[in-house]
Write a structure and sequence with these properties.
Helix content is 47%, strand content 15%. With 398 residues, it is α+β, with helices and mostly antiparallel strands.
């Protein structure tokens, strides 16, 4: 047994080996007169236990509350989600919940005050097995935030996610050319999309063309209103994104993914002409089927018609993703087709066109930085640099 100041540290021998526990005398309860003690176990060394106890002692000497709550990790996590979700867009909520559930599955009904740095490091090490670095980092950031809030509310005295080490994860090698379509591959797909005859899919070709020719996200495309598109001046204003839980529960959000996503995109004649044709077709379909918009105050650009139910509804992400799934099952193309592929394709084609900076492309796409965009841009421009060198070499040897 060892002491340092008012910190008591003692060793325990259990099934999991030797651990260390700290204990502090926190005075007496003014109402009951009983002693108040602060303790935590599970530390690998006495030094680690003392280090964790020192900030608590410092608070105690300053007259601050140091009694930690007995609430379990799951109980606190459920409450934290309710509070934190008030500040999130609905589209971000599933990611938050799924990552917190990872922590709940690992820590379960363990008291949150009993979770040590060693416990959290073990969680990270185990969770990292067979997963991508970005997946582990995302969970770590969310859970660290959860523990930070618990510290803020004096539920625990220290954050066990602090000072942990991110496990070394070897990046998975992926053929970067599979992440975008070449010019010819894109033209081949768009030709297919123009003739696609799936049920109620009149919107499919103009939607795919919009994704490919602007690089906007699928959620941004689904949220577009006709008032956002100036066909004469050839501009599209991105100011919102679509949240969709299912076909009946969806919402056009007041703002897109982030502040950098609010932008105006200049388009060319090809897309402007196609959007104008689609608007005419959409109006014709409304008259033909006598349909009514279930959100009459929102004149969505991309809608589909359920003529048997006399309904016109906004095209949602799951509907489009379902079409891509059906197409991929038929193995019609060499690459897997999905909505974000067109965003990556737009990057590659802009880079291939030449004389367009990475910063300009990122601004057009609506994000300040993105690793995938950077990788694709550098991959394409590297070939351009090689072509430039070869051109110069050929010229000099003539």
């Amino acid at each position: 047994m060892a002491t340092q100041g008012k910190i008591l540290v003692y060793k325990r021998q259990g099934k999991k080996g030797t651990t260390y526990t700290y204990r502090l005398e926190a005075g007496r309860d003014p109402i009951t007169g009983k002693r108040k003690r602060v303790s935590k176990s599970g530390f690998k060394t006495a030094k680690e236990a003392r280090a964790a106890a020192q900030p608590i002692l410092n608070k105690l000497l300053l007259g601050k509350n140091v009694i930690e709550s007995n609430i379990t990790f799951k109980e606190y996590a459920d409450e934290w989600i309710k509070e934190y979700s008030l500040h999130l867009k609905k589209a971000s909520l599933p990611t938050l919940i799924s990552n917190v559930k990872i922590g709940i599955k690992y820590f379960g009904n363990k008291k949150i005050k009993d979770i040590t740095i060693h416990d959290y490091q073990s969680f990270l090490n185990n969770y990292a097995i067979g997963r991508k670095k970005s997946t582990v980092e995302r969970a770590h950031v969310i859970l660290k935030n959860l523990f930070n809030t618990a510290v803020k509310y004096s539920i625990i005295n220290s954050n066990p996610a602090d000072n942990t080490i991110m496990p070394k994860i070897e990046p998975t090698k992926k053929d970067i050319t599979s992440m975008y379509l070449t010019k010819n591959e894109l033209l081949e797909f768009l030709d297919f999309a123009k003739n696609y005859k799936g049920y109620g899919s009149n919107y499919f070709y103009p939607l795919c063309l919009t994704l490919a020719y602007t690089g906007i996200r699928l959620g941004e495309a689904c949220a577009l209103l006709w008032e956002n598109i100036d066909i004469e001046n050839k501009t599209i204003k991105i100011e919102s994104s679509m949240y969709s839980k299912n076909q009946n529960e969806y919402e056009r959000q007041n703002s897109p993914k982030n502040l950098s996503s609010i932008r105006t995109i200049i388009i060319g004649n090809t897309l402007a002409t196609e959007l104008k044709k689609w608007k005419t077709e959409q109006l014709t379909l409304r008259v033909l089927y006598g349909t009514r918009n279930n959100k009459p105050n929102l004149d969505f650009v991309f809608t589909r018609f359920e003529k048997t139910k006399f309904k016109e509804i906004a095209v949602l992400q799951p509907t489009v993703q379902l079409i891509f799934t059906k197409i991929n099952k038929k193995h019609l193309f060499n690459k897997k087709i999905y909505a974000h592929l067109f965003r990556h394709t737009h990057v590659s084609l802009l880079a291939e066109a030449g004389n367009i900076s990475l910063e300009s492309i990122q601004q057009r796409l609506g994000h300040s930085s993105d690793e995938t965009t950077r990788k694709i841009y550098l991959h394409i421009t590297e070939k351009s640099k090689l072509d430039t060198a070869n051109t110069f070499e050929n010229y000099m040897t003539k």
